[in-house]
C-alpha cells in the first residue's frame, strides 16, 4: 500500500491536578467527564499513550504500527536510520488553570545513563493567555548548586527564577536542563522529543483530593539543571503573511510558522522527513494528489515523507505550525 495521504489521529486527553477547560472551550474538543483536562496528546508514540489514526483507510492503526509498516515512506530515510521504529516527536496541547510544578528535563546523555531512551527538549507556542499570565523559564541570576539546594530547602527558590509575562502567539524554546513551569491561564501547543521524563522540583505545596502531595524528584534533578541565567526565553520572530517564518531550529526538530490568507504551495522534495501541521487559528484545506483534507483550529495533521507536494488553501485564513526533523 502506498502512503500518499495526510493523517489525523484521535486525541488522548489526560486529567491533571492543574488542568482546566480551555481544551474544550477554546479548541472545541469534547473530553467527556474529565474534571481537570490538562493535556491533549495529539501525536504520540509514547508507550501507553499511542496515537491512533482517526479516519481513512488506515483508521485504527497506531502511529508506531505505521512507522513499522511504512518506514522511510512515513518518516524519511535519515529519520528512520536514526530512530528506526520509534517516532521521534510528541505534540500536545497544555491547558494550565494553576501553576504546573517547577520542573526540569534531563538531556539525552543523562537520561540514557539512567536507563531511559532519550531526554526532553521542547518548545511552546502560546494559543491563548489570560491577562498577566506568566511562566518560569530558567534563572534570573546565576547561582551555584549549593545555593540552589539551600534555597529549595528554605522555600526561597522563586526569588531567583526568571518569571516572564506571556501573550498569545509568543514562542518559548526550552532546552533540556532549563528549569521551567507554565503558569495559570495559559493554553499552548508543545512540540517535544518523544519522552515522558520529568523531574519535579517543587509543586507549590499542593495536595491531591486525598490530601497527598505529588512525588518530587529533587535528587534526580540536581545533575540535570543548567544553573546559568535566562534573560529572555522568548523566541523573537516577525510574522509575514503567506511566507514560511522560522521559529525554532534544533537538532531535535525544526518549527516554522505559516500565517495564510491566500493559497500557497509547499514542495518537500529536498526534505527527508515527515511534516506535522498544527493548526493554531482558523481553518484550511490541504490539497494533495487531486484530493483534499480539511483541518481546523486545534487539529494536528501528519504529512508522510512520501507526499512531497502540498497545496494549502486557507478558509478564509489560517495560522499553523510546520514541524519536521
Concise summary:
The chain has 325 residues and is mostly beta strands. It has helices at 22-25, 63-70, 72-75, 77-83, 108-113, 145-153, 218-222; strands at 7-8, 12-20, 37-43, 45-46, 49-50, 89-96, 102-104, 122-129, 134-139, 161-165, 171-174, 180-182, 186-193, 199-202, 244-249, 254-260, 264-267, 275-288, 291-296, 300-303, 309-324.
Distance from first to last alpha carbon: 24 Å
The CATH topology of the largest domain is: Jelly Rolls
Give the SSE order as H and E letters: EEHEEEHHHEEHEEHEEEEEHEEEEEEE
User: What's the oligomerization state?
Assistant: single chain
- Count of DSSP-assigned helices: 7
CATH architecture label name of the largest domain:
Sandwich
**What is the CATH first-level class name of the largest domain?**
Mainly Beta
How would a textbook summarize the main sheet?
Answer: 8 strands, antiparallel
CATH superfamily of the largest domain: Jelly Rolls
What's the alpha carbon Rg, rounded to whole Å? 20 Å
Number of domains: 2
Mean pLDDT: 96
Which residue ranges are poorly predicted, with pLDDT under 50 across at least 5 consecutive positions? none
Structural class: mainly beta
Beta percentage is 35-45%
Beta strands, count = 21
Helix content: 10-25%
Shape: globular
Amino acid at each position: 500500500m502506498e502512503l500518499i495521504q495526510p493523517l489525523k489521529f484521535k486525541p488522548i486527553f489526560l486529567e491533571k491536578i492543574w488542568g482546566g477547560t480551555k481544551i474544550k472551550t477554546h479548541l472545541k474538543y469534547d473530553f467527556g467527564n474529565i474534571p481537570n483536562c490538562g493535556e491533549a496528546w495529539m501525536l504520540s508514540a509514547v508507550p501507553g499513550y499511542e496515537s491512533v489514526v482517526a479516519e481513512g483507510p488506515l483508521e485504527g492503526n497506531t502511529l508506531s504500527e505505521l512507522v513499522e509498516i511504512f518506514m522511510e515512506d512515513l518518516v524519511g530515510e535519515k529519520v528512520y536510520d536514526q530512530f528506526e521504529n520509534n517516532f521521534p516527536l510528541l505534540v500536545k496541547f497544555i491547558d494550565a488553570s494553576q501553576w504546573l510544578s517547577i520542573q526540569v528535563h534531563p538531556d539525552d546523555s543523562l537520561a540514557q545513563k539512567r536507563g531511559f531512551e532519550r531526554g526532553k527538549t521542547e518548545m511552546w507556542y502560546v494559543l491563548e493567555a489570560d491577562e498577566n499570565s506568566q511562566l518560569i523559564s530558567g534563572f534570573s541570576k546565576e547561582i551555584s548548586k549549593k545555593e540552589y539546594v539551600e534555597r529549595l530547602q528554605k522555600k526561597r527558590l522563586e526569588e531567583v527564577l526568571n518569571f516572564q509575562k506571556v501573550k498569545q502567539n509568543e514562542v518559548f524554546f526550552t532546552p533540556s536542563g532549563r528549569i521551567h513551569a507554565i503558569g495559570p491561564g495559559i493554553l499552548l501547543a508543545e512540540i517535544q522529543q518523544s519522552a515522558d521524563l520529568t523531574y519535579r522540583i517543587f509543586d507549590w505545596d499542593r495536595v491531591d483530593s486525598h490530601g497527598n502531595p505529588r512525588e518530587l524528584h529533587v535528587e534526580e534533578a540536581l545533575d540535570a539543571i543548567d544553573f546559568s541565567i535566562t534573560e529572555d526565553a522568548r523566541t523573537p520572530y516577525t510574522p509575514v503573511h503567506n511566507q514560511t517564518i522560522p521559529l525554532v531550529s534544533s537538532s531535535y526538530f525544526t518549527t516554522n510558522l505559516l500565517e495564510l490568507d491566500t493559497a500557497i504551495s509547499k514542495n518537500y522534495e529536498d526534505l527527508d522527513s515527515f511534516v506535522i501541521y498544527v493548526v493554531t487559528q482558523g481553518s484550511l484545506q490541504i490539497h494533495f494528489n487531486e484530493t483534499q483534507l480539511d483541518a481546523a483550529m486545534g487539529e494536528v495533521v501528519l504529512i508522510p515523507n512520501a507526499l512531497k507536494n502540498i497545496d494549502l488553501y486557507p478558509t478564509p485564513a489560517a495560522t499553523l505550525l510546520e514541524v519536521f526533523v
